[in-house]
Amino acid sequence: xxCDMTAGYITHNSGQSWREFNLRSRIYSYCFDPLDPYVIYAxxxxxxxSSDRGESWKLIFPxxxxxxxxxxxxxxxxHNFESEDNWPGGEIEAINVDEKNSSNICICVRxxxxxxxxxxxxxxxxxxxxxxxxxxxIHKLFFxxxxxxxxxxxxxxxxxFVYGNSGLDKVKLPSEVLGIAHADYGLDCNTGILVLYMxxxxxxxxNYLCSIIKSEDLGETWQQQKDVSTPQLQGTAELSLIxxxxxxxxxxxxxxxxxxxxxxxxxxxxxxxVLKTNDGGINWDWVVKMDDMCDAQNRTxxxxxxxxxASWGDLKGEDQISPKGRYAWGIGVSPVxxxxxxxxDFSTIFRTCDGGCTWEHVSTRDLKDxxxxxxxxxxxxxxxxxxxxxxSKHIAAVFFDCGIFHSYNKGESWLHAIEGVPRKWINSCxxxxxxxxxxxxxxxxxxxxxxxxxxxxxxxxxxxxxxxGGICRAENGIDKWMVSSRGIPEKSIPVHIIIDPESPPGNxxxxxxxxxxxxxxxxxxxRTWTLRNNGIGDNRNVWRLATVPGGAIxxxxxxGVAEGQWIDGSLYKSTDGGNSWVDTGLPEDMGxxxxxxxDPECPSRMYLACWxxxxxxxxxxxxxVTEDSGKTWNNVFNAEVRVFAVALLPNRPSxxxxxxxxSGVYKSDDRGESWxxxxxxxxxxxHRPLPDPDNNDMxxxxxxxxxxxxxxxxxxI
Length: 717
Hints:
Layout: E1 8-10, E2 19-21, E3 29-32, E4 40-43, E5 47-50, E6 58-61, E7 67-73, E8 78-83, E9 91-97, E10 105-111, E11 114-120, E12 128-133, E13 138-146, E14 149-156, E15 159-164, E16 167-171, E17 177-187, E18 194-204, E19 207-215, E20 223-227, E21 238-244, E22 252-262, E23 268-277, E24 285-290, H1 303-308, E25 330-333, E26 341-344, E27 349-352, E28 360-361, E29 364-366, E30 372-374, E31 381-387, E32 395-400, E33 403-407, E34 415-416, E35 428-434, E36 442-447, H2 460-464, E37 469-474, E38 482-483, E39 493-499, E40 510-515, E41 518-522, E42 530-531, E43 542-547, E44 553-557, E45 560-562, E46 565-567, E47 570-574, E48 582-583, E49 593-599, E50 602-610, E51 622-626, E52 634-635, E53 643-649, E54 652-660, E55 665-668, E56 676-677, E57 686-691, E58 698-703, E59 708-712
C-alpha cells in the first residue's frame, strides 16, 4: 500500500505487520510480476524493481547509468531525476507486466500534464514511447494477448483506448457516457473471456447519473449493471473505484461515495461504503454501509473510529475536523480468492476474508490495558516529542490531525490524550510543555489548522472560516485537559509555548506564539493571556520562541503571504519580558527561517534553520550559525536544502543534528564544520530531531507522514 505522505508499506502476513520502504518520493503504482513471485515493480518518480519480494529496490528507469542529477523543488521538495536516456520525467501512475511474457512491461507516466505510455520488451533495459492518451488520470493499463489479439488497453477519465499494430484507437462508449470514474478487468478462467467493468458518469433525460457498465466483447457492446440513481432516491449517487477479482470476474467491489437514502422519518441521509456483486453485476449488496453519524456495524474499530467517529470525525458544518463522505481511497481484491479484499481510508487499512461479512482493521493492535500499538503503518505527522521530567518512561508526542498520544513505557504502546479538549480544536496539537517542578502540570497548544508553517497552510483567507484553537492545561497528567485560553481569540493557531524558567512554580509566566496574531503572555499560570506585539512588524506569523540566560527572549517569525505576495520572515529580541521587541535581522538572502536553537554553554552561539526560497526572490536554505548573538552569520550547510529543525546533544552541545525535507538527517560533532548523514533513515519529510534524554547514543525523529523513528545516532535508524 501507499500513502500521499510518500512512503510505501509491505506485508508478508496478511496485514498482521507491515514494513515501510521509501523510493525518493510518493509511490503511485505497483505491479507484481505474474511469472516470478519474487519480483515487484513500483512506480514513483522513476520505475523501481525488487527481486527479493520487496526487501530491497533498484531503479531501472531512468537507468542508473544515465542519471546525472536529482533535483527537489517547491515546498514539498518534489523530486525529479535528470537523465540522459529517454526518461520523460514525471510520475509513473500505472504499471502492467505481460502475463505471458514478463519481459514485456508497460507504464503510464504523467509528465507536463500529459499521460505518456511507454513499453519495454527487455524487462526494463530499454524503453519506447508508444503514445500519449487524453486525460488527467490513468485508471487502468494492461496487456491483452489472447489468440490473434495483442494490444494494450488504457483507461482514463476521458475514455477507453487500445494501442495495437495500427496505433492508438479510442473505443466507442455508449452515447450517454460523459466520463469514466474508474475501470477494472478480469479474465474468466472457464471461458477465456476478458470482462471489463467501469463506473461512469452519464447524462440521461437531462440528469447526471452514476452507474456501472460492463462489456464481455472488448468494448463492442456494454450492459448497464447498476443504476443507483433511481428516482426514489431523491438525489444522485456517486461511485468511484471498482475492483474486480482478476481470475473470477463475477465478483467485484465498488466504492460508494454518496448514496442518498430515505430513512423511516422520511429524511434523506447520504450513505457511503462498499457494494459487492457475486453474479457478474446482476445484483449488488452493501458490504460496508455507513454515514457521517454512524460507522459500519460489521467492522472492528481502531482508535480513529472510536475517538473521531465515522470517516474520521463526527462534527457537522463548520465544526467538522475532516472531509466527509469518502469511506475509502483505495480498494484491492485478491486475484485468486474473491472473498479477500482490503480497503484504505484516511487512517486505517481494513481487511475482509469472508467476502465483506466482517472487516478488521490491520493498522493498529489493541491491548488489554486500553492502549494500542502499531502494526507498522503510521501515516501521521508528528511535530514534536516531549519528555516527562518526573518519569523517564513517560513520553508524549503531538500530531497534526490527531492531537496527542502518550506512552508510559517509552513507546512500546500508546494512549490517545484528547479528553477535555474542545471538539473544535482537536485536529492538531503543536506543542506541549511540562512544568519542571510540579508533577503532572502541563500546557498544550491546539488548532483546527494543520501543517503550519508549510506553504500550503499559509493562506489565512482559507483558514478563517473554520479556524479554532487555543491553550489547554492539565493539572494531574495529560489524560485530561481543561481550556486555559482566556484572552486569546478562539480563531487562533497557537504553535509554541515556553515557560519563563525564573517564574515561580504554581504561578508561572508563559509565552505562546499564535500564528497570524502574535505573542501572548500569561503571568498567572496560563489562565489568562495578553497580547504583546509592541515593535513587531506587519508579518505576524510567529513560530518559535526561545529564552536565553539573562532573561532575553528571541522570537522567530516565519515567511508568509500578504495580498498575494510573499513576505520574508524575521528574528526579534526582547529584553523586558516581551513588553517590546527589536528586529535583530536575518542573514543576508535568508527569508524562510524554520527553527532557532541556542548553545547552552555559549548563549551567544545560535543555530538558525531555513528553507531555500521557491517563490519570488531567491532565498538561501541550509543552516546558519552565529557566535555573536546574531550580528554576523555563517552558512554551514548546503544552501539549497530545506532544513526544518535543529537540536543539540544535551550533554555535548558541540554535536548538532538537523532534519531536512529531502530524505536525510545529518549530524555534526564539531558545531557544523563537517557533517555525516544518519544511516537507515530514508523517509522524505523529517520534522524534528530529539536526542533521547536517557541515552546520548539514541535519537527520536518526528516526521511529516511517517510518525516517529528511533535509533542510534551513529548506526542505522
